[in-house]
Automatic annotation (TrEMBL):
MF-aspect GO terms: carbohydrate derivative binding; glutamine-fructose-6-phosphate transaminase (isomerizing) activity
Designated name of the protein: Glutamine--fructose-6-phosphate aminotransferase [isomerizing]
InterPro entries assigned: GATase_2_dom, GFAT, GFAT_N, GlmS/AgaS_SIS, GlmS/FrlB_SIS, Ntn_hydrolases_N, SIS_dom, SIS_dom_sf
E.C. no: 2.6.1.16
Keyword Disulfide bond included in the entry's annotation: no
Description of how the protein assembles with itself and partners: Homodimer.
Top EC class of this enzyme: transferase
Residues covered by the Glutamine amidotransferase type-2 domain: 2-223
Subcellular compartments: Cytoplasm
Stretches assigned to the SIS domain: 290-431, 464-605
HAMAP family, per database record: GlmS
Keywords, alphabetical: Aminotransferase, Cytoplasm, Glutamine amidotransferase, Repeat, Transferase
Species assigned in the record: Rhodocyclus tenuis
Cytoplasm in keyword set: yes
Amino acid sequence: MCGIVAAVADRNIVSVLIEGLRKLEYRGYDSAGLALVNESGLLRLRAVGRVAELAAQVEATAAAGNSGIAHTRWATHGAPCERNAHPHVSGGLAVVHNGIIENHEALRAELTAAGYVFTSDTDTEVVAHLIAHELKTGADFFDAVRAAISRVQGAYALAVLREAEPERIVVAREGSPLLLGVSEGADGAIDGYFAGSDASALLQVTRRMVCLENGDCAEITRSGYRITRVDGTPVERPVFESQLSADAIELGQYRHYMQKEIFEQPAALSATLEMLEGARSVQPGLFGANAEAIFADVNRVLIIACGTSYHAGLVARYWLEAIAGVPCVVEIASEYRYRESVANPHTLVVTISQSGETADTLAALQHAKNLGMAHSLAICNAPESSLVRETALRFITRAGPEIGVASTKAFTTQLAALYLLTLALATRLGRLDAVREANALQALRHLPAAVARVLELEPEIKAWAERFSDKQHALFLGRGRHYPIALEGALKLKEISYIHAEGYPAGELKHGPLALVDRNMPVVAVAPNDTLLEKLKSNLQEVRARGGELYVFADADSEISESEGVHILRLPEHYGSLSPLLHVVPLQLLSYHVALVRGTDVDKPRNLAKSVTVE
Ligand code: G6P
């Protein structure tokens, strides 16, 4: 992953670099670094840990410069330590990199034989030496970068700074996002050129941005920028005005972003469903201008996503098949992109992503397109993301910025969007009469209030969390459309509390996981009052008979009672098809409170990142 910022201006740009890194920290936060050129030459500062550590170094050293590059890292090659932190240097130049250089071993061997000494375990360092090598042949800086990257295989966004030419920074993109920023001072005159991994890093200086495409190289100078393809052919890319909000995202009354985001779910759902105000049916137009024509040409759905977004897709499959009667498969993007599969041009390819920048999801979409499936829809929380630019149709969830690494409000708003998609397809296929559609819309409109009532269970969930805090393992069980909710509950617990957790379809318990059950393994069951409740109760008996301690999230009217080793919390109301949106909420709260008791870094759990832009 990693985040990149670069700046050339007529003023000291160090604060721009640090602020940009703060905004990009969601992409990785195990180390950070920057390189500047000032009158003393090339200065490099690197720190293990958060951007704050680097900022402290900057302050302590009063580092300053009019041009510089900076990086926040999520380690791929080489442990997170100072030696491996970017920038990497060679022959008076410094490089920051986001992505993976796949042929780094061969290049490292070649460069070592040519006399270059490696000081890190990273794949990135080969790029620094390759460019230095090209410069030695007398090549121009821009051309040297182009020549170097033409030897590189893999994914990259790069920024390169050279001590001898501090007014030029060269950047390149292949597979990892990179934007240029054109900043105007108060008088309207250009006062600097910038580059960054995403718009959030650049909004502090400008809204005017240029999105580089794969295979683009660019140089930014104090007086302008130019873009070419890797072979040197000049290209123009449009300047656009970013519409993103630059407002600081405050924690307010909350202790963590994850807690804030869990409690924002009623508002996020209201915003996402706002367009239903007064609507009597779900119009295809909600998904884009061409939706009607595209929906008329599809007879199946392929959902592609990663992580929590994948779990949203798994829930949607139950809806799409049961309500709309549309066959649906759900694929993990990193698997699908390399799997030999059977393509059908009448497939609606639905990509789900909070960030819209997940490398595997983007690549899987491209793979589906290459197989001849042109009907694509993005369900995404980032309106200006790569994913949204690459699909024919889109539905933007209005969850607002999600900062906590563990996804919460993005998930429930994705589910709302997927339910709308189900209704739109069901109506088109004549599977939903006016009464059922009106009821479904009414249920959606009432959803924010229903979620708000579930949030009131927090005190009881907090008490349960205490009992999980000394456990090493936990099992989450669900059935039907709540099986993906069990998966999501387990993912939440493991990612932020580091307790090993598995989600299982309850009926599958006896085929293996039951062997693990003893009194040290809490078993969490999602038990809404639906047609599978009696089946689930039998599965829970199997757990109880082996001494397993059960924590059951039931509905107000689920016929299930407390007994020794069986703890029950009831959600205020049963919510029919939309019940997964309610039942995930207590599981989010449970993992949040378990993590609090265990004292982990809730918003930035170890080894993870918010947006996974490498495969
Ligand atoms: C990372 C995040 C998860 C997220 C997943 C997919 O692993 O930590 O919270 O679910 O990426 O991200 P996306 O932005 O594509 O939804």
